[in-house]
Amino acid sequence: MQDLLHGYYQQLGGLDPDASAPSPPPGPVNGEYQAQGKIVRVRRFSRRLVFVDVRMGQCKLGGEDTQEEAPLSSCSCGKVEAVLAAAQCADLPSLHRGLKLGDEVRVHGSVLQLKAPAPAPRTLLEVSRADILAKASVSGLGNAVEEWHAPRVERAEARSDSSKVAKTSTNETGLCKFWVNTGRCERGGEEGCPYRHPTGADLIRERKVWVAQRVESRMRSQQRADDPFEPGRKKRKSGRALIFAQWIHTTFGKPDHAIYRVLDVAGGKGAVGLELEHSFNLPSTLIDPRERILPKWTLRNLGDKELNAHWKGWFVDPPCEELDGLLQGTTPPSHTLLIGLHPDQATEAIVDIGLRLGMPWAIVPCCVFPSLFPERRSPTDGEEVTTTERFIDYLQAKDPGIQHAYLPFEGRNRVLYWMPPGADQSKAEGDAFS
Ligand SMILES: C[S@@+](CC[C@H](N)C(=O)[O-])C[C@H]1O[C@@H](n2cnc3c(N)ncnc32)[C@H](O)[C@@H]1O
Ligand SMILES: [Zn+2]
Ligand SMILES: [Zn+2]
């Protein structure tokens, strides 16, 4: 658990062991601060580790016993990122499932100081006690999501989110969108709502059509002009690991490239590496801090074959000593392939480490995490990187040798990949996979 937390703080640039906690007047009691406000984001890592963003009514964070709350100097957006780890917070096991978006909470704990203050200041609170003061109402939840998008770095998402809200309350089919979506009507049902509220088999049928339309319109809006795979021709997202593995085999499997091993970064359950190791005879190591829980059918298909290796840790740049050892290995860098399918926070580290060490890599970027990486700027207009499109442009600008391709599955399907200069020509010895 401590390793996981340490890794998380490393991703934020590391904690500063020398810095004393900020002491805004009138100061905390025994180094304890408390923050009170609405939950605007919950990320559950496990039952023993949960991250909760709390937006305070005003930008205030005060000491336990102070009547008047004191402003915290580093907090500009009124949001506190509360880290609830079972080791520090005895309430966590009983609270864990109860923490919901929109709930009013009070959290107590110590403020953590980051080594390098990020361009968008953030306040991390290591929580020792948490109380839920009031549960969210359904409409409160809507506000909470909007509030989360309010800070400067999430502007682009705020726009797309408000358009979602608008869509929910307009209607071309005469159908109540709240009703079809949740089985409840925000406007009070037949009494107060002008739209239709079908029931029973009609509801099931209309819901199916509505969901299919939503999925299709989302896919159309994500489709890029140069993507050769029409939305209707794409495979389901669940087939992405196999498709990516086959693409890797076709692209990097030529003897010229001489790839001896793969590091499957942020691989989750590790399906891509497993496929490469078993179907294409390419030793692969999964790198992901999560426990690897495989679906039953994967275990059945595995039969008596062994699972590929798993290093449980964070892929960050600069790498920790253990990761460094794994990267060096016994294979020369140009024969080790780094891959990342929807690798979330590890995406940029794969690119940076690959380019620096001369290791070929292939990634399919997805989420951007703008609040975690607020310093990224678009190479074209200098704007913040808040969308996947901008993120891909930003990554691609790191080296003129970076290429791209599309994979035939739904969702984020653009691959960026790079081979060290001369890799095509270098006739390496040994048994590369083919
Ligand atoms: C969206 S999932 C993708 C999993 C898998 N590649 C797939 O496509 O099904 C993202 C994964 O990234 C992992 N992850 C996030 N940041 C990471 C980091 N810095 N190092 C390693 N894994 C990370 C998470 O634990 C999670 O399993
Ligand atoms: Zn209605
Ligand atoms: Zn993602």
UniProtKB/TrEMBL annotation:
InterPro entries: Znf_CCCH. A zinc finger (C3H1-type) spans 170-200. Residues 170-200 form the C3H1-type domain. The keyword Metal-binding applies. GO terms for molecular function: zinc ion binding. Keywords: Metal-binding, Zinc, Zinc-finger. This is C3H1-type domain-containing protein.
